[in-house]
Design goal:
With 301 residues, the protein is α/β, with parallel strands linked by helices. It has 11 helices and 8 strands. Helix content is 52%, strand content 14%. Helix 2 (27-39) packs antiparallel against helix 3. The protein binds guanosine-5'-diphosphate. Belongs to the GTP-binding SRP family. FtsY subfamily. This is Signal recognition particle receptor FtsY.
């Protein structure tokens, strides 16, 4: 991840050090930090929060440069950790001997299919039985892509061969199959065509209803897969999805290619959504549970 966030890292740390300099933090430096945070896509709300805390601290005591950077890291971790406190099973920890259903949402191209493949792999490595429901029935290619990941990870894929089948029906079949084979983790791929927003949101709500009805005892997560390189546009996507998909968290992808990792802070602060996993590459191993410590170090060190 350190390497992954390399661009962000080199940028922010050098600039921060240059701004803070040797002496105690002064008002000019605070203003420059503010600009830096906005540039890194931390967003207005989170930036205001950070700068206010910094100002309050400065009113109490003078902050030598090293201490200023440490305090800044502390605030960033606090923002990221706050929504994580509501997570029942943090890290990769589906409940054993129970059906866990993870509804994977996000716009096309965000890295949803890849993330499903990575999760199936992680699941297998961690000793869980896993299955995938290919409920993005809108794009034939999506089903094929999911099947490829299924083969690579030795994970059964439930799909409906017909075109334009009802995604909720595939989810229904997926749950039935998972229940009869006592599968522990069912990953559900969903459509990501944001061109027809209303339609997609209705589709997601319908899938949610099917899950609640067919598997009322399942542990359900709804994760939004979000491309970190989108910066503030990603925040708007997250807003749209959180309205209808009852999101429980975010998977931030493509952190290997961006200086925009700051959007994680905007998501945590503005939407109160925990970042659950991060993707830092196209490979099957390039997914890891989110750690605020690791993330902030990578962002600032
Ligand atoms: P979907 O349309 O949301 O299912 O997106 P895909 O899973 O097909 O991914 C779109 C592209 O992003 C593919 O070329 C993936 O290899 C790539 N991708 C996915 N996750 C990551 C990541 O964490 N880092 C990088 N660099 N590329 C990724």
């Amino acid at each position: 991840l350190r390497q992954g966030l390399g661009k962000t890292r080199r940028g922010l740390v050098n600039q921060l050090k240059a701004i803070v300099g040797q002496g105690p933090l002064n008002q000019d430096a605070v203003m420059e930090i503010e600009a830096l945070l906005l540039q890194a896509d931390v967003g207005l709300e989170a930036t205001d929060y950070i700068i206010n805390k910094l100002q309050n601290k400065l009113r109490e005591e003078s902050l030598p440069s090293e201490q200023a950077i440490e305090y800044l890291k502390e605030i960033l971790r606090e923002i990221l950790d706050r929504p994580l406190q509501q997570v029942k099973n943090p890290g990769f920890a589906p409940e054993k001997d129970t059906l866990n259903i993870w509804l994977m949402t996000g716009v096309n191209g965000a890295g949803k299919t890849t993330t499903i493949g990575k999760l199936a792999h992680l699941s297998q490595k961690s000793g869980y039985s896993c299955m995938i429901a290919a409920a993005d029935t809108f794009r034939a290619a999506a089903v094929e892509q999911v099947k490829v990941w299924g083969e690579r990870t030795n994970t059964p894929v439930i799909a409906n061969p017909g075109k334009n089948t009802d995604p909720a029906a595939v989810v229904f079949d997926g749950i039935a199959a998972a229940q009869s084979r006592q599968t522990e983790l069912l990953l559900v791929d969903t459509a990501g065509r944001l061109q027809n927003k209303k339609n997609l949101m209705e589709e997601l709500s319908k899938i949610r209803r099917i899950i609640d009805k067919k598997a009322p005892d399942a542990q359900v997560e709804a994760l939004l897969v979000l491309d970190a390189t989108l910066g503030q546009n990603g925040l708007r996507q997250a807003e749209v999805f959180s309205e209808s998909a009852k999101l429980s968290g975010v998977v931030l992808t493509k952190l290997d290619g961006t200086a925009k990792g700051g959007v994680a802070l905007a998501i945590a602060q503005q939407l109160n959504l925990p970042i659950r996993f991060i993707g830092a590459g196209e490979g099957i191993e390039d997914l890891r549970p989110f750690s605020s410590y690791e993330f902030v170090e990578a962002l600032l060190n």
